[in-house]
Write a structure and sequence with these properties.
The structure holds two protein chains of two kinds. Chain A contains 14 helices and 14 strands. Chain A is of the alpha/beta class. In chain A, α1 crosses α4, α2 crosses α10 and α5 packs across α13. The relative contact order of chain A is 0.16. Chain B has a single domain, classed as Archaeosine Trna-guanine Transglycosylase, Chain: A, domain 4, CATH 2.30.130.110. In chain B, β6 and β7 form a beta hairpin. The radius of gyration of chain B is 15 Å and the shape is globular. The N and C termini of chain B lie far apart (41 Å). Classes of the chains: A alpha/beta, B mainly beta. Chains A and B meet through α6, α7 and α9 of A and β7, β9 and α1 of B.
Chain lengths: 388, 105
């Protein structure tokens, strides 16, 4: 079946399905000023976080990659980076890296260079106003599934996740891969116990080896804590929903990957270089995973849930898919699509999957998701080192 | 109306897709009927044993290992955290063997 999609063609060859101006604070100290700008200037989005200073080594690099990736995401038309001035993650380095890799508008405003919050806010708002007006002149054009990087995610899972919504997303993941697009599988924690099934599908030995490496590193983090990982995952809600062990949750989570060949394994917030199915090494934490995938270039995210969740991204539409019909009713404020029909025998996995393809096409073309309407601008960086 | 699903023929548990009450009889393809034994019943989404599972036996769902029985489980009993241990990410009992096992695969 053919679907019609539209989006914004960027000069670097990527395609956005939203046209945001991102006010990007690279340090916690600038988050309030950045939020001020979003209140003044329609068409801007921002994030609140607690990072950007006193970070070193691989942890510094991962946070840097996340900031840059958010700015590079094709859904972002232009960026105003906001810094303080004295911090570790210099706003200048982030702005320069974004400017080096795209020709989108990127500007920097530092609070200490502008004599404090009020003048910095005014300066950033002035710049943002100009960029928003330019962004508003861009028109949508027809695009294809092959232009998309679709992130997949499950959160607040129940025992139905592996029976309905995740297999339906797996069907979509295969369809996207066949169409020449990219589908990201993530949440390494929640693939512990299912890694052998994915390694078997790896493109080559290198990718298969990487699968076992990231799983081992994640499991070793649990070992180093000296506790059963089940004390934190599956969560109390997962357990109430019938999930007993992490392995059970993982086998259900892996269904999101469909049956395609695994072409690449990328680091957190790294942009895939391959098309088709790609695994991104992220934790199971919903928001940190979502942030990693969008920083890796995902323009749209499919999020399955059995318990229901408000999760959304500042820059990418998140389509939330319920695994069971009763939650779709009770949490309807937050859920976009129901696949409980599969469990009830009213629809096959393929039929629900095609319905999801249609929803992707519609949302890509401008239909707003519940999370977008509620301005659910979640953002969380996976920190892999201590704060100093 | 289906009452449960069994993902693979080698599974030893089924997932309830409706709430099952104690004494309910459930027909299982290829096995004897199972009578629900758990007094509080089996909630939607929860698992029950479709055969007897002795302590130390792997719990199989999706045709894969999802954990190990921490005590003997009768057919028709609720299978959950009270009678199943996870085998992965066990920092509380880890002796390093689990990591080595992964590397060998």
């Amino acid at each position: 079946m053919d679907y019609k999609l539209s989006g914004y063609k960027r000069t670097d060859g990527t395609v956005g399905i939203r046209n945001h101006v991102l006010i990007l604070p690279t340090i916690v100290c600038a988050t309030q000023a950045a939020m001020n700008v979003t209140k003044l200037v329609d068409g801007t989005v921002s994030v609140v976080h607690q990072h950007g200073c006193a970070q070193v080594g691989v942890d510094y690099e991962q946070t840097f990659r996340t900031y840059v990736g958010m700015g590079l995401n094709p859904n972002v038309y232009g960026v105003v980076v906001m810094g303080l001035g004295c911090e570790t993650h210099q706003g200048r380095s982030v702005a320069d890296e974004i400017a080096k890799r795209t020709d989108k508008p990127v500007e920097l405003v530092s609070i200490q260079d502008h004599s404090g919050t009020l003048q910095a806010t005014a300066e950033a708002a002035k710049i943002a106003t100009r960029i928003v007006q330019d962004a508003s002149m861009i028109e949508r054009e027809p695009i294809r599934f092959s232009d998309l990087i679709v992130g997949t995610e499950c959160g607040g899972s129940d025992a139905c996740s592996g029976l309905s919504a995740n297999p339906a997303v797996g069907y979509v993941s295969d369809r996207i891969a066949q169409s020449g697009g990219t589908s990201i599988l993530a949440e390494t924690t929640e693939l512990i116990g299912a890694e052998h099934l994915l390694a078997e599908r790896a493109k080559d030995d290198h990718v298969a080896k990487r699968v076992y490496e990231v799983i081992e590193a994640m499991e070793n983090r649990a070992f180093s804590m000296g506790v059963d990982i089940r004390t934190g995952n599956p969560s109390p809600g997962n357990r109430k929903g019938g999930l007993t062990t992490l392995e059970e949750k993982s086998l259900g989570a892996a269904a999101k990957a469909g049956s395609s060949r695994l072409n690449e394994l990328v680091s957190y917030a790294e942009r895939p270089s391959e098309k088709g199915l790609v695994w991104m090494d992220t934790p199971g934490h919903d928001i940190e995973q979502l942030t990693g995938m969008t920083a890796g270039g995902a323009q749209l995210v499919l999020f399955t849930s059995g318990r229901g969740t408000p999760t959304g991204s500042p820059i990418a539409p998140v389509i939330k898919i319920s695994t069971n019909s009763s939650m779709f009713e009770t949490m309807n404020d937050n859920m976009d699509v129901n696949t409980g029909t599969i469990i009830e025998g009213k629809e096959t996995i393929e039929e629900a999957g095609e319905r999801l393809m249609q929803e992707i096409a519609t949302v890509a073309s401008g239909k707003r998701t519940k999370a977008e309407i509620f301005k659910q601008h979640d953002f969380g960086i996976w920190r892999i080192g201590p704060t100093f | 109306m289906r009452t449960h699903v069994i993902m693979r023929p080698i599974d030893n548990v089924a997932t309830a897709i409706t709430t099952l009450n104690v004494s309910d009889k459930v027909a299982i393809d290829g096995f004897d009927d199972v009578t629900i034994l758990t007094v509080d019943g089996i909630e939607f989404g929860h698992k029950f044993a479709i055969v007897e599972i002795t302590e130390g036996t792997d719990i199989i769902k999706y045709g894969e290992i999802i954990g190990v029985a921490s005590c003997d489980i009768q057919a028709g009993e609720h299978v959950h955290v009270h009678n199943v241990d996870g085998k992965r990410g066990r920092g509380d009992v880890n002796d390093g063997l689990q990591t080595k096992r992964i590397q060998k695969n």
